[in-house]
Amino acid sequence: MREATRLLRTFLQASGVAEAEADALELVCAEAANNAVRYATEAGRERLVVIEALLGAGSVELRVTDHTPGFDLPLEVELPDLDAESGRGLFLIRSIMDEVDYLRGRDENVLIARRALPRLPGRAPTARELELEAELGQMTEELASAYESLSAIFRFSTALGGSERGPAWIEKWMLELCRVTGADWFQFRLADPKDLSLRIVASSAVEPAPPLTAKAGGEDLAEVRAILTRQDVWFDRRQALAEADPLLAFGRRMSGVVHPIFVGADPTGVLTLGREIEADPFSAGQVNVIHTLADFLGIEVCNARVQDENLRARVLHRELEIASSIQASLLPAVIPQQPGLALAATMAAASEMGGDFYDVIEIPGTGTLLVIADVMGKGMSAALFAAIFRSHLRSRLDLARQPEQLLTWVNRTLFADLDRVDMFITAQLALVDLPGRQVRIASAGHCPLLLAQPGGEVLEFGSEGPPLGIEAETAYLGSALPLRPGDTGILFTDGVPEMSDREGDFYGLARFKSWWGERAGGTPPGELGRALMAELDAFRTTRPARDDVAFVIFQHPA
Amino acid sequence: MKTLSQSASLTVSDLTEMNAANSAGLRDEIRASLLESQLELNLDLSATRFIDSSGLGALIALQKTMRARGGQLRLLRPSPVVLQILELTRLHRVLEIVPA
Questions:
Q1: pLDDT in tens, A268-313
Q2: What local confidence, expressed as pLDDT, does residue A147 receive?
Q3: Considering Cα of B11, then B12, then B14, then B15, what sign does the dihedral take?
Q4: Which helix (H) or strand (E) holds B81?
Q5: DSSP code for A44
Q6: Average pLDDT of A95-117?
Q7: Which end of chain A is more exposed for a tag (fewer CB within 10 A), N or C?
Q8: Contact present, A323 and A380 (Cβ < 8 Å)
Q9: B97 touches A: beta carbon within 8 Å
Q10: Other beta carbons less than 10 A from residue A536's beta carbon
Q11: Pairing between β-strand A255-263 and β-strand A266-275 as defined by DSSP bridges
């Protein structure tokens, strides 16, 4: 670093700066750079400390860019106690230089220090040089105002880095913009990209005007015209506002500019800055600052909108993940097998989690209860009701001998909960009673059960009652099917017949029934289940399944 | 850095630079060179062409060292650059300076 400050000194002296001046400037530089090195953040240590010297005709400006957390530059720097071993650096900088600024940014700050120099000895400046100098002075002035706005951006984005991009945030910005450009009042309307309504979110007006809509025919109004033409609209003594223009609420002898904000092709908002004079409201430099800030605001507002959407999508995604793990945890880990009854069950969850559910419960002395259900709706609520349904069902297995009674009890118990949230559950129960050579079934608005007989005939046992949660006092009816050796039955959810192909056509119950008649006899249930999934996959081809598919297959071997 | 060790005093000269990079080292080196009998520390600053606030800090630290042992620190013939900074920071009020 000393090498850098020596280089600076060499440069200054080579440019004709007197030795004493060069000494002092070198010291200032060293002090600023020392601090920049000493207080650099961990990430900042990887970055360069930049030292710049700008030598003008009668002054010098030093800039040292640091990557420290920054500090508040006091207006007056006090000397530390005489016997303190540190704390004199800033004092030295302040004492040697005429003017010191410290611009704080995000991860980067700039110390700017200026000092007048005696005019360098030598020939008198040429006319061209004087002209250039005047031009430079003008540019510097313009730049200074731009610089001020940039430093404001720095400060605000640091201070408000994590906060919401709401009206208060926009208002702070607008006040800053008024200060920088010398405007007396402002108004900021957010544009809704869908219906092009322009709603005031920040305004100097005590009572903000109602929303406007930027549609053809409204061009009389400056804010609408700015959005429709995508151009600034100026108003002053020569170009007056229309009588109906809400901007007249700020007064009549005004001037100002209305600037539309677009991000990409989408209108994001429209901002108006006004002054209480009639002529020449803003200089070119100020307009430049307004445009820069407007672009910045527009991008921030758009980012905030996108972030909101992303957040919502993430929450939803997480919910689906949780729901999906609940759904999976409800299914039996092992399907019980016993002599005379082969069983298999499958569930394939669609990407948008539904509420399909199956269960296989052995009830000693009674038989094996097969359960299939479809909870209406998707996501978390469907998964939760599937869990509630399962635990209710399992709490009254004493009723399982008459599945219709079990359904009646579950419906009566769950009705209030389901009804309150407008949900319902379709379910089918089948109690396989091997010693009694029968299957007792009951259904609550669910798909029929198919039973294939050894000869290839398929029997269909349809729904008898409404879904659970529709009527409090439903008495479900049961029926019994004889179970003969070689019979193969399936309980399934509507994901099977309603599997759709690329054209949106359903697989359909009739097609399923005939497939079942051809394939069910003699094929073990596990293999049959895989064959059915393959059949459905082949049908839907490339289209992702919209709904869950679940089924339970039972077979009484011949 | 050159040192001249006498029974009652230590004189250090050829201190061309006292900056952030070397001041702490100089301070420690000088402290280590001090013998118990030496109650007078002379720093010859006539060749010093650069001193910053870290260098000033080292001077103050050495002064404290000397005071603690009942001795004193003297700055011999400080160069104009050094003198100017000492005056600017008003340290000429607490450090004993022996001009050229």
A1: 999 999 998 877 678 766 777 788 788 888 888 888 777 777 877 8
A2: 57
A3: negative
A4: helix B80-88
A5: G
A6: 87
A7: C
A8: yes
A9: no
A10: 19
A11: antiparallel
Q: Which residue ranges form the domains of chain B, and what is each CATH number?
A: 2-98 (3.30.750.24)
pLDDT, tens only, A480-502: 999 999 999 999 998 888 888 87
Q: Are A380 and A369 in contact (CB under 8 A)?
A: no
Instruction: Report helix angle A19-38 to A89-96, nearest 10.
Output: 140
Out of B58, B81, B88, whose CB is closest to A92? B88
Residue with tokens 């606030």: B53
Partners of B89 on chain A (C-beta within 8 Å) are: 79, 88, 91-92
Q: Give the number of other Cβ atoms within 10 Å of residue A210's Cβ.
A: 8
CA distance A294 to chain B (A): 44
Q: Is A79 helix (H, G, I), strand (E, B) or coil?
A: coil
Which residues have C-beta within 8 Å of that of residue A549, sequence separation ≥ 6?
A346, A347, A348, A350, A356, A492, A493, A495, A496, A499, A533, A536
Compare A371 and A210 and report the one with higher pLDDT: A371
Q: Cβ-count burial of A98 within 10 angstroms (0-12 exposed, 13-18 middle, 19+ buried)?
A: exposed
CA distance B35 to chain A (A): 23
Residue A107 has pLDDT above 80, yes or no: no
Taking the whole predicted model, whether its pTM rises above 0.80 is answered as no
Which chain B positions have a beta carbon within 8 Å of A4's beta carbon?
none
Q: Which domains does chain A have, with CATH numbers?
A: 2-122 (3.30.565.10), 167-308 (3.30.450.40), 331-556 (3.60.40.10)
**pLDDT tens profile A29-64:** 999 999 999 999 998 888 899 999 988 878 899 999
Other Cβ atoms less than 10 A from the Cβ of A213: the count is 15
Residue B2 corresponds to which tokens in the numbers above? 């050159």
B60 touches chain A (CB under 8 A): yes
| Residue B51, pLDDT above cutoff 90 | yes
Contact A85 B57 (CB under 8 A): yes
Positive or negative, the CA dihedral A223, A229, A233, A239 is negative
> Are A153 and A293 in contact, with CB atoms under 8 Å apart?
yes
Task: Tell me the Cα Rg of chain A.
Answer: 40
Question: Which runs of consecutive H residues, i.e. helices, occur in A397-457?
Answer: 403-420
The neighbouring-strand residues paired with B18 are: B51
To test the contact with chain A by mutation, choose from B16, B22, B52 the residue with the greatest count of A C-beta atoms within 10 A, namely B52
